[in-house]
Amino acid sequence: MKSIVLLFIGLILAQFVNAQTVEAKKWTLLECIERAQKENLDVQSSRLNLENAGYTLDQNNWNQAPSVNAGASYGFNWGRSIDPTTNDFRTERINSIGVNANANLLLWNGMQVRNAISRNKLEIVASEFELQTAKNNIALFVSNSFLTVVLNKELLQNNQFQLEIAKEQLNRTEKLVNAGSLPISNKLDLESQVATAELNVINAENALSLSLLNLKQLLLIPASEPFDVEIPEVEDPGSGIFENSPEAIYDIATNNLPDIKAAEYRAQSAEYQQKEARGGYYPSLSLNAGLRSNYSSAADRERFISDGSSVIIPNTQLGFLRESDGSQGAAVYESPFSTLTTDATSSQTGGSFESSYPVTEQLSDNISQNLSLNLSIPIFNNMQTRINVQRSKIAYERAQITKKSTENQVRNDIEQAYNNAIASSKTFQARQKQVDALKEAFRVTEQRYNLGVVNSTDYQVALNNLNAAETDLVRAKYDYIFSLKVLDFYQGKDLF
């Protein structure tokens, strides 16, 4: 019993250690991006589009090969029908079997297949660039969300540090109040300051939790699953001096950005779509070959077998026997050997008569083959070809518009990102100067407050101003960092 208890405690401890390990798992930015690119639904949809384009190309490649088909039939006919072997009318039940095989090879159809293949190859390349675009977009989203988490972590640390400063100052003030050096109002004011700092910490914790939740949702991680990020080494950005102008960045983007490449290949694909549609105006040439045979139970033929060889003697139907009740009876046939009895004929010729025609022999005897070269000249097909050509022109014009729109959008995004980088650079530098000045002002105010020269209100104002400036500096820092990363993205550089 003691061993069971110890084992149970060991299992609980193992689960606890495992849970602690899961909680300690911290995701790097690269791991977050890889996870998002793998799980994101837009990326998966783009990947399926690429796979589908590959199958479409395979289908059009196989359209150049001949098509071969085979078939068979088995059935019964009752009443008056045509014997499929003699084309004579028969009034009896006929059991029939038919087999066939045919092949068709398209020789030329106005280059429609070749143009379709060229179009499919361009669409595959376009789909590959669109997949890369989807991955890039999710990488930007994840990077922005990741930086928001890092920002909120730093803001939380700042607020926690400010809370510690407020508590330390409250402790010093309490001692001075107890000694009678300061009025009790100073203590009450600092208690209010501590409560405000605690509220700021709570708000920062809530902001951090929300940003972590947003990042988990981008990664498709359940909200209940423990999750944290590893803070990368983010250096303070330098001055607002940029290597390239917006025009230079745009020139780099046009050569590297998959958005523009995808639009270019879609436009080229639309051009081949026009050629494919125009091919409907031209004649088509194809080669056909076929093989067929059949069997019919109505093909009842006599065979004279002599010395291992056989001669098939077709029967000629004379009519039908009349039954006693006046109804039609069995069919009556006439044979060239009908005047001879079977025994007599067999004795004279050294052979015998049979009246069966096996399936295999019928199928072998009834083989029919055909080979044809077919030319189809389009004259009028309800204007389908003309309408398809007009639609392909519209698709080409739309692809050109999409290409131009994509280029304009990229140019606008680059110009906007460049202006944002300049503005955030100026804001960051201004915030730095503001924090440096307020730090010095707070240091002087704190010294004077400890000496009793200034009251608690002046101290709180100086502290609040410093706290707000430091918070604004952190925000300006990460705004500037992200704006720089966006410019790096358009230049094909790594985000981190």
Provide a descriptive summary of the structure in words.
This protein is an alpha+beta fold and 496 residues long. The chain has 11 helices and 11 strands. It has helices spanning 2-24, 29-39, 41-62, 112-179, 184-218, 246-256, 258-278, 342-349, 359-365, 384-450, 456-490; strands spanning 67-77, 80-82, 89-91, 94-108, 284-296, 302-306, 309-313, 316-322, 328-334, 351-354, 368-376. A 4-stranded antiparallel β-sheet has the order 1-4-5-11, with helices on one face. It has a 3-stranded antiparallel β-sheet with strand order 7-6-10, covered by helices on one side. It has a two-stranded antiparallel ribbon with strand order 2-3. The model is unreliable at 4-14, 16-22 and 335-350 (pLDDT under 50).
